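Query form — protein L-glutamate gamma-semialdehyde dehydrogenase

QUESTION: What is the three-dimensional structure of this chain?
INPUT:
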Amino acid sequence: MSILTPNEAFRNEPFVNFALEENKQAMLAAIAKVKARLGREYPLHIGAEKIVTEAKIKSINPGNVDEVIGYVSKADQALAEQAMQTALATFETWKKVPVAERAEYLFKAAAIMRERKHEFSAMMVLEAGKNYAEADADTAEAIDFMEFYAREMLRLAATNEHQPLTPVAGEDNKLTYIPLGVGIVIPPWNFPLAICVGMSTAAIVSGNTILLKPASTTPVIAHMFVELMEEVGLPAGVLNFVPGSGAEVGDYLTTHPKTRFVSFTGSKEIGLRISRLAADTAPGQIWIKRLVAEMGGKDGIVVDETADLDAAAQAIVASAFGFQGQKCSAGSRAFIVESVYEEVVEKVAALTKQIQSGLPEQNFAAGPVIDQGSYDKILGYIEIGKNEGRLIAGGGKAEGNGYYIQPTVFADVDGKARIMQEEIFGPVLALGKAKDWREAIEVYNDTEFGLTGAFFSKDEGRIEEALETMHCGNLYVNRKCTGALVGAHPFGGFNMSGTDSKAGGYDYLLLFTQAKMTSRKL
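ANSWER: The structure tokens for L-glutamate gamma-semialdehyde dehydrogenase are given below.
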């Protein structure tokens, strides 16, 4: 087990090798442990109060829809207001807590999560439909976020460490980073632990108090995180857990005059709605609300004729179908130069047909999509794709008592086609042909999104030009376009992919603080 101490430099949590029998057995034991507590009820957390409501969110296993993960109490506007007032009152004390003390809560939580990592991963296997490796990577990233942001806040708190000031004779000048206030944190279901933990702890360690409104499809794993922070002694009222309807609770809190910031990860449509609502000034509001938004992508991979075609095909398939394509970084498009197009298409089709679908707890490579709405939407796009391209793999439902869809590939798709332009968020890949590598980059850039991309080539001159001209927030060369690591690959996108927040990077905590400059004449 990798153990970090606060005075050590940050390093990423290692992934578990499930090819080893002891690790596989440990995960199976964790799944059995989690299954033993399925169907429980989970309360709201508002300050020190745990509130059970009549209205509940019913969380089900998308891989076995007869299995109920839990019943989570659902906030209404009155409870949301109670949570806001609690967070406002708590902020007055929490903002005065020394940075080192705030960071220590994160270090303690990371240590406990590391000890129980299989248990957290097992809940995601059941509630989110992740296989072992995807769930383990999610938990590892959650640990990384806490370790990284705790260290980063300590760095920012060091006098003039982040921004050394020019000395002026006769003056003592300092720049300090102070918290904003109360924030609304709205994480997604696809990384229900990592992004939930990262968004929440970044705000908390910066001295803010938050209202956490988890995704309605994965609220139980979010509650596990809330319980963890309670276990490490985080003061009541710093983190308030308020699951609820986006239309009722989400909109209410976004437009609240006392909301200082909204941190959101999710779809473009909801992100733009939050942006519009947050931009309006409510009566009694004395600040411009800050929005930190990551809103998805239509990511792609470009392959030229000099590339390692086997490596490119493997990266295309891994990027497209990891966690059933339900990642904002998923490579749902690939553009290949015509001289090697058919060869790459054949390799991609062969690799895709090898992917086996089944129950996540049995660690199949492909599992279900998250819910009925996604299932219907993705199958609808597959039907659209049958009129826009040549179906070479998949093309419909997969067997199982859940939301299973075959990994699907369409070839010969025009860059303007709907399945090339619209975010599907499922296991659907579109392949297009380009006359040369520059045209391939041009059609790659022809999208309203700009999150991740990859370029496969052995030509250094082309690589240098691609690094400059491919327009996205995270660009990779000769590797897949998913799998950003905290600290190594600060994550965030351009255009309709969001505010380019660069989560897991050295700029991220600046979004949850405001810089106060003080100058004292000596």
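ADDITIONAL NOTE: The CA atoms of residues 152 and 506 lie 7 Å apart.
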